[in-house]
Design brief:
Shape: globular
Distance between the termini: 45 Å
Strand order of the largest sheet: 1-2
Structural class: mainly alpha
Helix content: 55-70%
Number of helices: 30
Length: about 700
């Protein structure tokens, strides 16, 4: 590939376009390596700065008073400490002595070296052909993703060795020469983690039969060696606990992302659950291995390894978080016909392996089966369902391109600041959009909750001080109408109080989400423009919550405001009875209640064609500002702050992307071609922002 990329008619002087492009690629590559280094250092700092009794808790399995190093009886006398194979106890026992002497330092840096090696091997194993830029960027990106993933972070924090079997398999499949050597490495990995033995059928059915035989022989030899050295332990593990199946303290815990754990969480127990687990496991094994063999024969051996690893994740009796790295390798599979869909599967896998499941799915009882088994579902999808593209498919290298709008002249020559961020006309991938909204809102909740100004009492004092500042400014400007409006609504217009309470609690989410859904279906190009502006506005609001915690009028003691939504507040309590783990009551400036409603109004006024619809867009923010003031939940200046962040959101969208591209709906003729059915818009360039 290097011979194709270098030289030829595309080459030029160092200072020419090709030299400039090469310099940019080098700069990006250096930046990616710096990011990987920062993530690695951060992980080391997190582990080594944790108090001795709280870090590397699973390392006590090896170096604790009753760990492998000191145990006199069976390794499994205390099932909550050691769950590995007897061979693991035999081989890793010398390493535990070094770990004890180094107090975890050697263990931590050794794990870091394993992660780096794993990233390098995975980058070299990408299915061919690989673009030159991809090959340059693959290694640092792979290492960064590994460092961010929950399995690696969990292995670092607990002091686990689960990275080693994955690395041994990758080395056996991609790094060493000779089938016997390859089989030896895979066999050792299987001796450490028995479900890795599933790679033997993969090797056999892809023509590497010597490697498959070597894998089996090595596994039997390693297990036999451990049996000879520790017969009682081997009997306990392989016979009494059925290959370690009964060693887990709580196999029904959410951390056990296997079919067995899922069935236990569903409430199934006893022989019926075991029979169902064995039946499902057999089905997943057969289907998954058949798919893995097909992808290996197609030249996508890394994907085949990932699929086989996902099968091992699903069919193992216990698969803890630190053993889920196989699922992350499945990002190499390509899915989707359109270029815009190509990122869906990698994003899904990366989010599932890097974020807590509660950030991906709302905390609703109806979604618990999905939320508690997110990684398992991803593993099952990779093993049995996801239609990965074949390298022989013309869409593998050349998916259907994305439709971009022609550039629109801007008021300033320096706009857009990010020319590559072009206006896309086609509808974005729905799954990615839903994930973006959910993860974004979850991050918004976390930051909003964290922005309390310190402890509860400290946040209260600071927020009340800022509230007094806002009240003083409003009195100076003669706009302090909150008390008058609040009491007028409560004492003289009960029906208006009920209306404002309903409007405040209901329309804040319903209207923006409905508008986004309507634009997604009817006006995709405008959807992207409006969504970007809303995202920028919300991000700026989070900065405001963090920098300026503010008590709303209803939480200001001595001013006499009436909380019409939450009821009477007990000001004698440190948290007023309202500052809970679910929300930050001091996130009042700027008001996103008004900001989001103003965003809705602007979008409706800009996009609507009928005057009465534009009038509705004007009425919504007017009703919202009346509701937030009448219920005592915001100051007038909070609404001004909300208007400011929304204005800045639209301005940033304009500056970074350029002017909005106006589009008009085009009727689709019945029986028309796929392209006409795919795009329901025509572009009418305009200079309006």
């Amino acid at each position: 590939m290097a011979n194709v990329e270098h030289g030829g008619p595309m080459s030029g002087p160092v200072g020419g376009p090709v030299g400039t492009a090469t310099g940019r690629v080098s700069a990006v590559r250096v930046g990616l390596w710096l990011i990987a280094a920062v993530l690695a250092v951060r992980q080391l700092v997190v582990v080594l700065s944790t108090p001795r009794g709280e870090r590397l808790t699973d390392l006590e399995t090896w170096i604790g008073p009753e760990g492998v190093l000191h145990v006199k009886g069976s390794l499994y006398d205390a099932p909550d400490l050691f769950t590995g194979t007897p061979f693991a106890g035999l081989v890793l026992k010398p390493l535990s002595r070094a770990a004890e002497q180094a107090l975890g330092w050697g263990w931590t840096f050794g794990s870091l070296a394993l992660v780096v090696a794993l990233g390098l091997v995975a980058a070299r194993a990408l299915p061919q052909p690989v673009a030159r830029r991809t090959s340059l960027f693959a290694a640092p990106v792979a290492i960064s993703l590994l460092m961010l993933s929950l399995p690696v972070r969990n292995a670092f924090t607990l002091g686990q060795t689960s990275i080693l079997p994955v690395l041994l398999v990758l080395l056996g499949c991609f790094a060493v020469r000779g089938e016997k050597s390859s089989g030896v490495l895979v066999g050792v990995a299987a001796a450490l983690q028995p479900t890795v033995l599933l790679f033997a059928p993969l090797l056999w059915f892809t023509g590497r039969r010597r490697a498959a035989i070597s894998t089996g022989v090595t596994f039997v030899a390693a297990t036999g060696l451990a049996w000879a050295a520790m017969p009682h332990d081997s009997w306990t593990y392989w016979v009494h606990h059925m290959a370690g199946a009964g060693l887990a303290t709580d196999p029904a815990a959410n951390a056990n992302q296997s079919l067995h754990g899922m069935l236990l969480r569903f409430g199934l127990e006893g022989p019926g659950e075991k029979a169902l687990f064995l039946a499902l496991g057999a089905g997943v094994t057969v289907l998954g291995l058949r798919r893995a063999v097909r992808y290996a024969r197609d030249g996508q051996l890394l994907l085949a390894v990932a699929v086989t690893g996902c099968v091992a994740v699903a069919v193992s009796p216990t698969t803890w978080q630190h053993q889920l790295l196989w699922v992350l390798l499945a990002v190499v599979g390509r899915v989707g016909k359109r270029a815009s869909d190509r990122y869906m599967w990698p994003v899904l896998v990366i989010l599932a392996l890097t974020l807590p499941s509660k950030m991906m799915l709302p905390n609703m009882p109806s979604l618990e089966p999905l939320r508690d088994n997110v990684v398992l579902i991803a593993a099952l999808a990779a093993a049995c369902a996801v239609p990965f593209l074949s390298r022989e498919s013309p869409l593998y290298q050349a998916p259907i391109p994305t439709d971009y709008a022609a550039p629109v002249p801007a008021r300033w020559k320096w706009v857009p600041l990010v020319p590559v961020w072009r206006r896309v006309l086609t509808r974005p991938n729905l799954i990615l959009e839903l994930l973006l909204i959910r993860v974004g809102y979850s991050a918004y909740q976390q930051v909003r909750l964290a922005a309390t100004g310190g402890t509860i009492s400290g946040g209260r004092v600071t927020a009340e001080h800022h509230g007094a500042q806002i009240h003083s400014i409003e009195k100076f400007l003669h706009i302090d109408i909150e008390h008058w409006v609040n009491h007028g609504v409560v004492h003289h217009a009960t029906w208006l109080k009920d209306f404002f309470n309903f409007y405040y609690t209901s329309f804040h989410f319903v209207v923006p989400l409905s508008l986004l859904a309507l634009m997604y279906v009817r006006r995709p190009a405008e959807y992207r423009w409006a969504r970007s502006a809303l995202g920028f506005a919300t991000l700026l609001a989070l900065i405001g919550f963090w920098a300026y915690p503010l008590a709303p009028p209803r939480l200001m003691p001595g001013l006499g405001f009436i909380d019409t939504v939450h009821g009477v507040q007990d000001f004698s309590k440190p948290n007023y009875g309202t500052l809970t783990q679910l929300t930050n009551q001091y996130a009042a400036m700027p008001s996103l209640h008004f900001g989001w409603s103003l965003w809705c109004g602007i979008v409706i006024i800009v996009l609507a064609r009928r005057k009465w619809v534009k009038a509705l867009g004007l009425i919504h923010p007017l009703c919202t500002v009346s509701a937030i003031v009448g219920t005592g939940n915001h100051w007038i200046l909070d609404a001004a702050g909300g208007a400011a962040v929304v204005s800045l959101g639209f301005f940033l969208t304009y500056v970074l992307q350029g002017p909005r591209v106006r589009t008009a709906a085009v009727p689709v003729r019945p029986g028309g071609d796929d392209e006409a059915a795919h795009s329901d818009q025509t572009v009418l360039p305009t200079a309006k922002g």
